[in-house]
Specification:
Two copies of one chain form a homodimer. By secondary structure, chain A is of the alpha/beta class. Helices cover 32% and strands 24% of the residues of chain A. Chain A has a nine-stranded mixed beta sheet, sandwiched between helices. In chain A, strand 6 (138-147), helix 4 (150-161) and strand 7 (168-172) form a beta-alpha-beta unit. The first copy, chain A, is globular, with a radius of gyration of 17 Å. Chain A binds chain B through residues 10-14, 17, 64-67, 69-70, 222, 224, 252, 254-256, 258-261, 263-264, 267, and chain B through 10-14, 17, 64-67, 69-70, 222, 224, 252-256, 258-261, 263-264, 267.
Chain lengths: 280, 280
């Protein structure tokens, strides 16, 4: 399991921005991920922040577009950039950008043709954390999770389900109520089948109402996000308010859905995670 | 001349990261550029830093990969990201990555088939600054210039030739002695012809010896840059020392030629330009 191939390593802000691949047991294909290790990792295990990316992205987008390494290096924190789906010629795919490769939606698919490889839920919450803690100087007890768009959905659902594994939580423009959105219903039907009750475990707004998260959830959402009707931030805000979940939900005036939005607010997110993980 | 098309604008760190195009008179084709305007530009003309990119790049690479907008916004400074060559079906090209489109080398070509469009020297030093000062709230008397690799070559040669237009100067891993390098001789022969004397005006090491620059030149170079033999930093360092040019030449241990190197040292470069431009 622990054969990690180094694809490339770049020195970056005194640390190392690497890209690695490994044969994933749960996804049954070679998976690529980015990992930024700050200089502080030379001296021992460091906290890490997981960044889950959105539709059409790979491990690379957030790694090259958010400028997050500067802030992570300042806080002595690692950054993990997983891919968004299994990949390869043997892996099922679809011609739509929002289904199949690049669109794993962070679930374990139960339906054909997806169930053979699409197990991003297990991959992100179990397999990759175990692999990284074994192979790199990361503190498995001090991990936070965030993400953008589909990755914000993944971060919120995985974070709320495994608060002991991910001790801090935030999201950028998350798909916030996928059971009620065309970004969600289509994919859940394909990956999870027609029983809509099974979808609710993958809907952040439902999870907030069901059990929430034992810490503050930080969310940023651009007011000029062209996908806002698909993201459904209002459902999540309503759920947060109804359950009195500790949260900061920021509507950012004039910002869209791009990485220019993400890069603008990543400093506050990394600060949020660093503060929450300190001493954990 | 002043028809600037807005291709896209993103809010970013309180300012605006835009991408625009216009019909270039000197390049005789549609040219695209990126422009970051900080929030401070609402209140009046701001200083600007020009970032010239390297081989194979467009206006986009530095705009999305350097994280420079954060630092520019802090200093109330605009960022200009020009393209690296003329583009289009009518524009001459070559199958090599280092000649033709994406490889303009910041010269005015005199030789066929390049002379019709490849006039990046005039474009960067005259046409685009005039257009930007006319169309956007930029202070034409407060401009600095930097760049990476081929763009570092462009920044150094244009900066040293027009110190009144570019009042601060720096470079990341510049092609520093192109008249003696395979990154230079091939292109200068194609673009400028066989008279090597004409090449010297486009060689930073020659220009330092000839007249230098009336201010401090800041240069960063990675020690593990795989292209170091093509970049020839030693020739430039020797010339800087021989002419007692005010300069800071930093060898950065373990860094390579990538944008992870650039992003790691852009904070210091923007600080350098902001300090030099303050009050100019």
């Amino acid at each position: 399991m622990n054969r990690v191939k180094t694809l490339v390593e770049h020195r970056c802000f005194g640390g190392t921005q690497g890209v690695y691949s490994h044969q994933s047991e749960c996804c049954r294909c070679e998976m690529t991920f980015g990992l930024f290790l700050p200089d502080a990792a030379k001296d021992g295990r460091v906290p890490s922040l997981w960044f889950l990316s959105g539709l059409t992205c790979t491990h690379e987008n957030a790694m090259i577009k958010t400028g997050a390494q500067y802030w992570a290096s300042r806080h002595g924190m690692a950054l993990v950039f997983p891919d968004t789906s299994p990949r390869g010629e043997d892996v099922a795919d679809h011609s739509d950008y929002d289904l199949g490769q690049g669109a794993g939606f962070y679930v374990n698919a139960t339906e054909t043709p997806w169930s053979g490889h699409f197990r991003m839920w297990d991959y992100v919450s179990e397999e990759l954390p175990a692999l990284l803690a074994d192979r790199f100087p990361l503190d498995p007890g001090s991990q936070g999770i965030t993400g953008h768009s589909m990755g914000g959905h993944g971060a919120l659902t995985i974070g709320m389900t495994f608060p002991d594994r991910f001790r801090s939580l935030s999201a950028f423009a998350p798909i916030a109520n996928p059971t009620q959105s065309d970004w969600g219903r289509k994919q859940f039907k394909a990956y999870l089948g027609g029983n809509e009750d099974a979808w609710k475990a993958h809907d952040a707004s439902h999870l907030v109402a069901r059990h929430g998260y034992p810490g503050k959830i930080l969310i940023d959402q651009g007011s000029k996000d062209p996908f806002i009707d698909l993201l459904c931030p209002k459902a999540l805000e309503t759920a947060l308010a109804a359950s009195r979940q500790e949260a900061g939900f920021h509507h950012r005036s004039g910002y869209d859905h791009s990485y220019f939005f993400v890069m603008s607010f990543i400093p506050g997110h990394i600060q949020h995670h660093a503060a929450a993980l300190k001493g954990s």
